[in-house]
Design brief:
Residues 15-32 have a biased composition (Low complexity). By secondary structure, the chain is mainly alpha-helical. It is 73% helix and 1% strand. It has helices at 41-54, 58-65, 67-74, 78-96, 99-106, 108-125, 132-160, 165-193, 198-203, 205-232, 250-279, 284-296, 298-310, 316-335, 341-351, 354-364, 369-387, 389-401, 405-425, 431-434, and strands at residues 17-19, 235-237. Strands 1-2 form a two-stranded antiparallel ribbon. Helix 8 runs antiparallel to helix 16, helix 12 (284-296) packs parallel to helix 15 and helix 16 (354-364) runs antiparallel to helix 17. The two termini are 16 Å apart.
């Protein structure tokens, strides 16, 4: 990739400037004083990050809650319905790759602002779709915006809050978990309260996405003004190396594969955990509550884990602990799925908090914002591609074997390489050092 300027969104002191070299004199060490940032920008940015994170999953989980009604209403075949369930991971992988280029061209704040607008537009359009194709296209628009925001939020945190990566990652991870569980829990009762139409139930979530656009408008405008001021000033911005070639980094691959396996576990849990409980004799309503418990566990832990990880040089021990919680949970589901249902739901909820951990590690494994944007795009794009076959494989094994013994063994087995990869990804090193590049 071409070199990219290391600019700051809201932290001008990090942007170093030096006078353009004179033909008759050696370069000097004079520096241009940066323009102070507006006092309102930091708080508005924090609000924007939280609102963006709240909108990163309702487009998916609200649809999951009403999927049967949507299938019937649009006359979807089983094949098309299966395609729609695979679209989120595919879109996250495909569109996430474009985030670094768009970030270089327009700045990360502007891309996140556009991403939130895309989420809102897709959520506004899809309830009015009259066929599966239109519904799929509108969903893809929202998912594209989510994919871009997924990649760039860690970058913005790294640039604006370099000394509080763990705290800010925890804040938006907690907001993401809250949005996920909220949409899953309230979509159905809210739809009933609003007249029972699935179209209305899905449309409501567009309001939250529209609200999320608002704080990013002034943030993006301020970043654009700062970029113009730097470009037109008397000093030339130092251009840093864009970072290592990601594919040469073992840490980048460890993060990508760890991301993929934790995403596989999360999608399997969301898609199949209620069915495991129901097949064990648990009622449908209780099975739904158990899934909600699993998801809600991510709200407090998504704040605690990144804070803890940010204070540690090596995060491998956290990855091991989370994996062991999952192994105990799957073992319990095998031997006593109904008798210990609440305990297994809690344990799997803890295990699924590998997501905020890997997001935190992405911010810690690169020295510069340029490195973070490339690492984030690589890890998430490769990771989501890895996660696509998981739920389909578990479904095929369940159908073939007629029970959950074999699928549960596979779920538990996937945690073993996930733990090993977490140990590798958690080592105290950066992709710049690993590839012999300058930061």
């Amino acid at each position: 990739m071409p070199d990219e300027e290391i600019q700051t969104l809201n932290r001008p002191e990090a942007a170093r400037t030096v006078p353009a070299p004179s033909r008759s004199a050696a370069p000097t060490s004079a520096r241009t004083e940066p323009t102070p940032e507006p006092s309102w920008l930091g708080p508005v940015l924090i609000v924007g990050i939280v609102l963006a994170a709240l909108n990163l999953r309702p487009a998916i989980t609200s649809l999951g809650a009403l999927f049967e009604e949507v299938r019937t209403g649009l006359g979807m075949s089983g094949t098309v319905a299966g395609l729609i369930t695979s679209v989120p991971a595919l879109c996250f992988a495909v569109f996430g790759v474009t985030a670094p280029r768009l970030s270089r061209r327009f700045g990360p704040a502007a891309v996140v602002c556009a991403g939130m607008a895309a989420v809102a537009a897709g959520l506004l359009i899809r309830p009015f779709a009259q066929g599966a194709v239109g519904f799929l296209a509108a969903s893809a628009l929202s998912l594209a915006g989510i994919a871009l925001t997924n990649v760039l939020l860690p970058v913005i945190v790294k640039r604006r809050f370099p000394d509080r990566v763990g705290t800010m990652t925890g804040l938006y991870s907690m907001a993401l978990a809250l949005g996920t569980s909220l949409a899953a829990a309230v979509t159905v009762p809210m739809t009933s309260a609003l007249g029972g139409s699935w179209r209305t139930g899905l449309l409501v979530w567009a309001v939250l996405a529209l609200v999320a656009v608002l704080p990013w408008l002034p943030v993006a405008a301020a970043a654009r003004r700062e970029k113009r001021a730097v470009a037109s000033g008397p000093a030339a911005t130092v251009r840093a190396d864009a970072g290592p070639k990601i594919v040469r980094s073992r840490t980048a691959w460890a993060l990508a594969c760890y991301f993929g396996l934790q995403a596989t576990g999360a999608y399997i849990t969301m898609g199949w955990l209620p069915q495991i409980f129901r097949d064990a004799g648990v009622s449908a309503s209780t099975a739904g509550v158990l899934l909600a418990v699993t998801m809600v566990m991510g709200v407090p832990l998504a704040f605690v884990i990144p804070n803890l990880a940010g204070r540690m040089k090596n995060q491998g021990s956290i990855a091991v602990t989370l994996g062991l919680f999952g192994l105990v949970g799957y073992t319990g589901l095998h031997f006593a799925p109904a008798g210990g249902a609440w305990a297994w739901a809690l344990l799997l909820g803890v295990s699924n908090c590998a997501f905020p951990l890997v997001i935190t590690m992405i911010g810690l494994r690169a020295k510069s914002p340029a490195g973070v944007v490339k690492l984030s795009a690589f890890a998430q794009s490769v990771g989501y591609l890895i996660s696509i076959p998981g739920p389909l494989l578990i479904g095929a094994l369940y159908q073939h074997s007629g029970g959950w013994d074999l699928p549960l063994a596979v779920m538990a087995g996937l945690l073993v390489p996930q733990i090993a990869l977490g140990i590798l990804a958690g080592r105290d090193r950066t992709i710049e050092d690993e590839c012999g590049m300058r930061d």
